[in-house]
């Protein structure tokens, strides 16, 4: 495809994703940047649904960085045990909270460099917080975004970093944040890892994966 043709194809893909998932939104429950940061750290290798079961009690009892920073690992662990890897996550959360208090005046920083300086915060987590808490355009590439974008053809990459870079090049900046949610919803509801539901997918006529497999894997 020419650049113009690819641009038109991308626009059509995004329009169909929007049509298929008009309810796309963050599925982690949060009411402020601090809650989103903690929930996102907990979501590593855990479902948003499970995180949402844990955080209400945690945020009720420890609603800010100052309160949480005073906890010990042993005190925090029972709140988050069902999220998996709870000891490591507890250590990272407490370290991040102490830095938020001591270095950033108790408020979650709103710039990438500062966010990524916090324990347990990599580029993906920083993108989630920047996008959903501060309205900064960003594309967080999780397992769903990586799989779906490369299957469809929005990206052609073997790493998360390269996928993010290509998506940022191909998708208009004003759609970065919502496209992230469209791709996640599509991955969870339709384009599953093992058996993608091509029979109900609205993107088959545009999809690289569907075209290359001639529908054989979807029957």
What this model shows, in words?
It is built from twelve helices and no strands. The chain is mainly alpha-helical and 219 residues long. Helix 2 runs antiparallel to helix 8. The two termini are 29 Å apart.
Q: Give me the Rg, rounded.
A: 19 Å
What sort of overall outline do the alpha carbons produce when their principal axes are compared? Answer: elongated
N→C terminal distance: 29 Å
Question: Based on helices, strands and strand pairing, what is the structural class?
Answer: mainly alpha
N-to-C order of helices and strands: HHHHHHHHHHHH
Helix percentage: 55-70%
Annotation field: number of helices:
12
Low-confidence stretches: none
Biggest β-sheet: count, sense, barrel? Answer: none
Q: What's the count of strands?
A: 0
Strand content: under 5%
Q: If you average the pLDDT, what whole number results?
A: 95
Secondary structure layout plus pairing:
Elements: H1 3-20, H2 33-42, H3 48-61, H4 65-69, H5 73-80, H6 86-104, H7 112-116, H8 123-134, H9 143-152, H10 160-170, H11 176-189, H12 208-213
Helix pairs in contact: 1-11, 2-8, 5-6, 9-11
Tag the structure with descriptive keywords.
0% strand; 12 helices; 219 residues
At a glance:
The chain is mostly helical.
């Amino acid at each position: 495809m020419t650049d113009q043709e690819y641009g038109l194809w991308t626009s059509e893909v995004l329009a169909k994703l929007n049509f298929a998932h008009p309810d796309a939104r963050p599925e982690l429950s949060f009411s402020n940047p601090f809650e989103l940061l903690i929930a996102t750290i907990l979501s590593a290798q855990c479902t948003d649904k499970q995180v949402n079961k844990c955080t209400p009690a945690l945020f009720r009892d420890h609603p800010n960085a100052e309160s949480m920073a005073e906890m010990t690992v042993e005190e925090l662990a029972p709140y988050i045990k069902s999220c998996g890897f709870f000891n490591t996550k507890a250590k990272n959360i407490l370290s991040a909270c102490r830095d938020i208090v001591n270095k950033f005046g108790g408020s979650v920083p709103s710039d990438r460099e500062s966010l990524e300086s916090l324990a347990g915060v990599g580029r993906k987590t920083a993108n989630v917080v920047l996008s959903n808490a501060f309205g900064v355009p960003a594309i967080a590439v999780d397992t769903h975004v990586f799989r779906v974008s490369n299957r469809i053809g929005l990206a052609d990459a073997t790493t998360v970093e390269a996928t993010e870079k290509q998506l940022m090049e191909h998708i208009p900046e004003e759609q970065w944040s919502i496209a992230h949610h469209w791709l996640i919803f599509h991955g969870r509801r339709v384009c599953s890892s093992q058996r993608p539901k091509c029979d109900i997918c609205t993107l088959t006529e545009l999809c690289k994966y569907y075209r290359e497999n001639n529908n054989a894997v979807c029957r």
